[in-house]
Amino acid sequence: MKKVLRRTLLVLLTAVFVLLIFVFVREPSLSRTWDEDVSILAGVEISNDATVSLTQIRDWRYAISSISSKSYFDASFDPKDIVAMWMYEQQLDASGLIAHTFLVFEFAESYERGRYLGLSVETRREQGEEYSIIGGALRSFEITHIWATERDLVTRRVQFLDYPLTRYQLEIPAEYRSQIFSKFAKETQSLASVPRWYNTVSNNCTSSLIKYVNESEPGAIPFHYSYALTGKVDEYLEQLGYKAPDYSLHINRDFLESHKLR
Fold first, then answer.
1. How far apart are CA 184 and CA 191, in angstroms?
2. Which string of b and e fits 45-57 if b means at least 16 CB within 10 Å?
3. The pTM of the whole model exceeds 0.85
4. Do residues 84 and 106 lie in contact, with contact meaning Cβ atoms separated by under 8 Å?
């Protein structure tokens, strides 16, 4: 019996070892047959005065379970013109421990179509591929940045995919908002030529934000389990004073039918 157990254990360890070798020798790519919503990469140019020019900002329109139109536009942004930052949370499991988060940078009214500019750090899925937490930890997906209007990111999840969202306002000093925006833009620029893997724990939608906050102010967001259990990051940010305590907006299909999205 002991011999059988030892052999079984040896087989399992060998299988795990082979899997790890396979995972860590794989190289990320820019050339795959991507799902359409993540196929186009935003272009980024950063001028000497720190103005960020973005091309291919996604602005699709959605109805219930269908896509109404697909358009993109180009615009330039001065990071100093950011007047507020918002975080959206999309719960991904019944426990509330795992969530997808994305940011919206609010600019002055003069920015018109680009006034509410969203950034979603996502997996760049191939056609027919579905996201999984385990796959995200085992280099199954490249990472991508989706720059899009707030309306696109919200209605895609709520109207098209029927995922309710919760919106929070982030209370972050203006200088840090500018730095976070610029750092994300530089990383987007880098990803266009140097692909990288998404990682459920260390390189996900939430940890990217935390990384740039900590680069702007070292130690501002100490390590916490919500780096990986992203459904709890709103509680942690509120505890640290970065989330407005009295403001949250829950958005579902019924809400969108009776309210105009800003």
1. 10
2. eeeeeeebebeeb
3. yes
4. yes
Burial label for 103, CB within 10 Å (0-12, 13-18, 19+), is: buried
Residue 57's nearest CA partner among 135, 114, 132 is: 114
Does residue 81 form part of some domain?
Answer: yes
Burial call 168-205: b when 16+ CB within 10 Å, e when fewer: bbbbbeeebbbbbbbbbbebbbebeeebebbbbeeebb
Report yes or no on 252 lying in a domain.
yes
> Does 244 have pLDDT greater than 50?
yes
- For the stretch 137-192, pLDDT in tens is 788 899 999 999 999 999 999 999 999 999 999 999 999 999 999 999 999 999 99
- Per the structure, the complete domain to which residue 247 belongs is given by 32-258
Answer whether residue 23 is part of any domain.
no
Q: Where do runs of H (alpha helix) occur along the chain?
A: 2-25, 133-137, 150-155, 174-191, 205-216, 233-240, 253-258
Q: Give the type of residue at 83.
A: V
Residues 6+ positions from 238 with CB-CB distance below 8 Å: 245
- In tens, the pLDDT along 218-235 reads 898 998 988 888 999 999
Give helix 174-191 / helix 205-216 axis angle, nearest 10°. Answer: 130
Beta bridge partners of 63: 66
12 within a domain of the structure (yes/no)? no
